[in-house]
Amino acid sequence: MFCKTCGTLLTPKTTPYGKWLACPNGHPQPELNQISTTQIQKNTHLAKPIEVADSINILAVHDHLCTKCGYNKAELMEISASYSDEDNCYRMKCGKCGHVDILEGKLK
Ligand SMILES: [Zn+2]
Ligand SMILES: [Zn+2]
Fold first, then answer.
1. CA of 51 to the centre of ligand 2 (A)
2. pLDDT band (50, 70, 90) for residue 1
3. 3 located within any domain
4. pLDDT score, position 88
5. CATH number of residue 98's parent domain
6. Number of domains present in the structure of the chain
7. How many A from CA of 93 to the centre of ligand 1?
8. Which residue from 78, 50, 47 is spatially nearest to 62, judged by alpha carbons?
């Protein structure tokens, strides 16, 4: 492989992101950099856990006062009333202690 700008033979270069061929004169090699970028994206594609132990539930974004500990944010979990014609029931899971309050009817 030769530099597309000056034609100098490319030399292996080690960086924090991996190894690739680079021009000794510092000219960028667009094709090589594209391959490198793809590899970086694959390596950083990590799934984030939704809930973390011993911390506030990030899904608890709804205003609801916990009847157990008094925390004012809760995670909404809807239960569809598929078995009857009545209004849906909602469960509000406290974002702090995990206590679940059951609400009947529709949310405002
Ligand atoms: Zn060059
Ligand atoms: Zn609570």
1. 16
2. confident
3. no
4. 73
5. 2.20.25.10
6. 2
7. 60
8. 78
Cα–Cα distance measured from residue 95 to residue 66, given in angstroms and rounded to the nearest whole number:
9
15 within domain boundaries: yes
Give the Å distance between the CA of 88 and the centre of ligand 2. Answer: 22
Domain extent for 66: 62-104
Closest ligand by atom to 57 CA: 2
The rounded distance, in Å, linking the Cα atoms of 58 and 60 is 5
Q: Residue 76 in contact with residue 58, Cβ under 8 Å?
A: no
Whether residue 69 sits in one domain with residue 97: yes
Which pLDDT band, with edges at 50, 70 and 90, does 85 fall under? low
> Given a cut of 70, is residue 99 above it in pLDDT?
yes
Distance 15 CA to ligand 1 centre (A): 18
Identify the nearest ligand to the CA of 29 by its number.
1
Task: Please check whether residue 56 is in contact with residue 79, taking contact to mean a CB–CB distance below 8 angstroms.
Answer: no
